[in-house]
Request: fold
Amino acid sequence: MIKLSRRVMARYAADQLLAGKPVKHLANELVAVLTMQKSQAQLEQLMADIQAELENRGQLAIVKATVAYALTPELKAEIESAVKLATSVKHVSLDETVDKTMLGGLRLETASWVWDQSLKTKLAKLREVA
Amino acid sequence: MSASLAISEVNLLSHFAETSSSSSGLGAFHVNLKSFIFQLITFVIVLLIFRRWILPPITKTLENRQNSLEKSLADAKATEEALAKAEARAEEILSRARQHADGALAEGKKAAEEVIAKAEIAGGQRATQIVADAEEHLKLERNKLRSELKAELADLVADATEKLIQEKLDEPRDRRLIERIVGGIK
Reply:
């Protein structure tokens, strides 16, 4: 049996999604392939690869935003707009996470891009420089 | 020859004694002629004996003594000359030895001065090296201390900043901060 790499499967998934194939159907196919290849544990990595593929094609960026306080809708819209410019994608999906240990600021992470402007990271860098 | 001469003189004197009388010549001086002639003959005999057997040995002895003295004098003179030469030679040797000693002393002094000078230079170089090493060590210690102080200061600043942020940074302020950050992305 030919073993498909994650990159190949990710490209296939991106093609199918952009072609409008139903997500459920595509998901079943991918899970079946992983099961046949006995690599179910790579599902998380496969999802990340698909996200990266879609982002590289300029279609979709799923942004994980980590903040110390909950974002307002206006702020979310601004963030999405900024990410669109930074990653040159058509669509942005924002996934917000509130973490008090951040102290303040913002951390944005996509499949292929990370932008950390949290106060916690800045303080950690200050300690490292010393 | 001396004996024949003495005999001829005796004959002459005997003839003279026979021909002379007491009233003339020697008789006027109240001199007994026979006795005189006898004494004269005796004298001549003694003289002859002296000349024949006594004088030569004495003369020879005197001559030998003379020669011996002259030889001794000559030897003494030669010895004196040899002594003078030896003294001169000794003086020369002493002079050379003094010169040699002076030269050795001067060389030794010079060598000692060179050793002292070299030791001073080495000591100076060593001192310079010690000072340089000490300065390098101080520099390293200074840099190490500076780094440690910097780290401590950074930790203090970070801790103080963290506390300050926790106290002062509320939601509105955080929102404004995020807006500035997002503005930076654009």
